[in-house]
Amino acid sequence: MKQILWFRRDLRIKDNAILANAKDEVLPIFIFDTDILDKLDTDDKRVTFIYESVKNLKNDLRALGLDLEVFYGKPKSIFTNLAKEGFDEVLVSADFDDYAKNRDNEIEKIIPLKRFYDSFLIEPNDGLKADGTPYKVFTPFYKNLKYIWQSDALNEYDSISNIKNLKLADYKFNDILSLDSMGFSKALLPDFLNKTAYEILDEFKDKIKNYTKGRDYFYLDNTSSLGVHFRFGLISPKIAFNIVKKFYVTDDEKEFFIRELFWREFYNYILYHFPKSEFENLNGINVNWNNNEEDFKAWCEGKTGVALIDAAMKKFNETGTMHNRLRMIVSSYLTKNLLIDWKWGEKYFASKLLDYEASSNIGSWQWAASTGADSVPYFRVFNPYLQSKKFDKDGIFIKSVIKELKDVDSKLFHVENALQEDMFVEYPKQRVTIDFSRKRAIEEFKRANNEKN
Ligand SMILES: Cc1cc2nc3c(=O)[nH]c(=O)nc-3n(C[C@H](O)[C@H](O)[C@H](O)COP(=O)(O)OP(=O)(O)OC[C@H]3O[C@@H](n4cnc5c(N)ncnc54)[C@H](O)[C@@H]3O)c2cc1C
Question: What are the pLDDT digits (tens) for 15-59?
């Protein structure tokens, strides 16, 4: 048996399904896919992060007697060439978004493809209702999987032991191309991306004690920051689960965090069972979006006239990161107050978000827009002024991003138009007033829902 082990979103050697299930002769590979890369900015931080991770993976595999061939090009033509070298099959960790599914279906026509499910805790057909259909609401989905999240430890693949049984295929391995020769420059990464997932989890051992209360305060650093490492599989979710289960904190504290991990599972399960949700409103309502391009531009650039929204978007543009509560607030503002199609926001996030994951991003945007599975009810529209008052009372976050506002009385951030009315402050006019835009959204969503029923 001659197998290609195609690493994609599983850039690790521990608890790795393709390494654990490989046998006989193997060729481990990674592809810098030009179909994806050609759409990215040349200083995309994610490319630098993946590049470093691929280099580490190559070193780890070499230390265990294997190697990694790194290609740059289109998967289809790379596999067409590899097929001539007599490989029997390709082993992969499954991916569920539309691009990935089409790509894999094409490759399958060239060499048989074997899919494994180790990037999530559950397989997509786990946790169906008694009648075999998928849940659309998180809580019953989660309760039904109690047998998983209540266990003390989940079985990991013993991939490292299996490596000893493998033989490297006869192949002339090349050095990895430089970032530069792929048309990218090395980007400066935020500190947490220079740490391993294990170092991050070790720091989280203390942070988790305050996670339940602190996770919503976006000026604090109280969440795990594991999203990017999960996205590219630098740690498997099972290993993270098992480590967290051993933390010396109460079961409630652990469970609160593990429940969040299951939102990632839920959105992946939703995308798998409802693939059209990548392109359409999952609940089938037909919203007459306002889709004003100037409003969208102002939102993207952080120039809406609402200090909290602007600070969140400015920081996002600079760093590619955004705290979960801020993601909820800016997505609500875009889809409800500005009445702009969630797909515009989803696409903008996808272009920059370091932890961009199609399933979580699509699911969360549809949640915010009240068009998805278990969404926020359409009549509950976040008020960004009340959100900043509650979660950034002293304006610590806003001032840290918008330096021109650093000496402003923080109370002004929490009152509509207060910045614009203050004679000592110059701040852009709001695009819409909160009351008008809230009512406009509620009426439109009410109409769209009634029309559907
Ligand atoms: C509009 C919008 C878009 C989003 N886009 C993405 C995305 O592209 N990729 C992504 O991983 N998450 C996305 N999220 C979910 C969430 O914001 C991030 O997972 C979280 O902020 C990552 O930070 P953390 O690792 O510190 O999270 P923690 O609070 O430490 O949570 C631990 C892990 O649980 C998972 N998780 C937590 N909350 C959620 C959630 N609500 N939905 C799905 N998974 C969750 C993530 O894998 C996260 O890394 C989005 C949320 C919103 C509202």
Answer: 999 999 999 999 999 999 999 999 999 999 999 999 999 999 999
pLDDT digits (tens, 9 = 90+) for 191-203: 999 999 999 999 9
Of 211, 305, 214, 321, the closest CA to residue 261 belongs to 211
Tokens of 47: 């490319």
The two tokens of residue 450 are 């009634």
State pTM to two decimals.
0.97
- How much is the mean pLDDT over the chain? 97
CA-only gyration radius of the chain, Å: 23
Mean pLDDT (whole number) for 215-236: 97
Length of the chain: 453
Alpha-carbon distance of 288 to 280, in angstroms, equals 14
pLDDT in the model for residue 375: 87
Note the helical H segments in 70-185. 75-83, 98-108, 138-144, 146-149, 159-163
Do 363 and 331 fall into the same domain? yes
Q: Are residues 111 and 142 in the same domain?
A: no
| Cα three-residue angle 413-431-343, rounded to 5 degrees | 105
- Residue 224 Cβ inside 6 Å of ligand 1? The answer reads yes
From 138, 230, 260, mutation site for ligand 1 pocket: most ligand atoms within 8 A of C-beta: 260
174: in domain: no
**DSSP string computed for 197-213:** HHHHHHHHHHHGGGHHH
CA of 237, closest atom in ligand 1: 47
* Residue 68: φ, ψ to 5°: -140, 125
User: Of all protein residues, whose CA lies closest to atom 24 belonging to ligand 1?
Assistant: 225
Ligand 1 near 328 CB (within 6 A): yes
Return d(Cα 122, Cα 360) in angstroms, integer: 15
Give the structural domain span for 354.
Answer: 293-452
